[in-house]
Amino acid sequence: MTKIIGLTGGIGSGKTTIANYFEEKGVPVYIADNEAKKLMQSKLIIEEIKSVFGETVFESEVLNRAKLAEIVFGNSDKLNQLNSIIHPAVKKDFEAWLQKNKNYDYVIYEAAILFESGRYKDCDIVITVTAPEEVRIERVIKRDKTTKEQVLNRMKMQWKDEERIVKSNYVINNDNLKNAKEEVVKILKILNIKQNQS
Ligand SMILES: CC(C)(COP(=O)(O)OP(=O)(O)OC[C@H]1O[C@@H](n2cnc3c(N)ncnc32)[C@H](O)[C@@H]1O)[C@@H](O)C(=O)NCCC(=O)NCCS
Ligand SMILES: Nc1ncnc2c1ncn2[C@@H]1O[C@H](COP(=O)(O)OP(=O)(O)OP(=O)(O)O)[C@@H](O)[C@H]1O
Fold first, then answer.
1. Which residues does ATP bind (predicted)?
2. Residue 56 marked as a ligand binder
3. What pLDDT, in 10s, does the model give residues 132-186?
4. Exposed/middle/buried for 104, CB within 10 Å: 0-12, 13-18, 19+?
């Protein structure tokens, strides 16, 4: 049976960067953030978001993600409400994706809130990607043209590295990309996963 590797880490730790490297090496990767974004364009989910958050988070039927982010990352009850709309849809979508990839020995499920959502329980192995908080904040400010306060608001809704690390099988320190990639190769070897030559 295909084994699920959960790949997690706080905002800006570099988990998508690391996930992409696993993919380069030949492991199929499901990026929960990206798939959630696509699912949030479905009519059913749009209606559910409207019923909870109102029409004001939409502009001509297009979700204003920044506006919704402002609401939910300042209020954990609202974030839980949004999560309970999106997470079941992502779970279902992932299960269908997994079926399509059932010939692989391992696949990767990449999600920032793997532990917070409880989805780590569906994983056979969990890898946490880490980097110092200040570095993560700087990366996100640069990537998203956002403010320190906005990044901190998201961080407050996530577990701390210490909490993630104790529940993980492997930890990849992504302070430095070259070293982090070497860690990926080590894990592939330990798990006996055949690598693409790249
Ligand atoms: C609030 C939304 C619209 C903001 O969208 P935006 O494009 O600004 O952010 P994006 O989705 O790309 O997420 C960027 C990062 O924010 C953090 N983040 C996103 N969702 C959550 C959450 N529910 N809890 C904690 N942190 C989160 C993660 O570090 C994530 O990698 C969006 O994040 C959302 O719908 N979140 C709830 C659904 C969810 O949990 N998605 C994540 C994977 S299932
Ligand atoms: N080792 C590194 N050195 C420098 N920059 C990096 C490194 N790893 C990732 N980055 C950059 O930092 C930013 C955040 O990385 P990435 O998007 O992979 O993080 P993430 O953990 O998936 O974030 P989020 O939780 O927001 O989705 C990106 O712009 C990426 O190119």
1. 12-17
2. no
3. 999 999 999 999 999 999 999 999 999 999 999 999 999 999 999 999 999 999 9
4. middle
Protein residue with its CA nearest to atom 12 in ligand 2: 139
Question: Residue 195: is its pLDDT beyond 90?
Answer: no
**Is any ligand 1 atom within 6 A of the Cβ of residue 125?**
no
Asked if residue 99 belongs to a domain, the reply is yes
Q: In the chain, how many domains are there? A: 1
Q: What is the pLDDT of residues 44-67, one digit of tens each?
A: 999 999 999 999 999 988 999 999
197 domain residue, yes or no:
no
Ligand 1 atom closest to Cα of residue 63: 3
ipTM rounded to 2 decimals: 0.97
| CATH code assigned at 61 | 3.40.50.300
State the pLDDT confidence band at 12, using cuts at 50, 70 and 90.
Answer: very high
Cβ proximity of 57 and 49 under 8 Å: yes
Report the nearest-CA residue for atom 3 of ligand 1. Answer: 65
Residue 153's pLDDT is what? 98
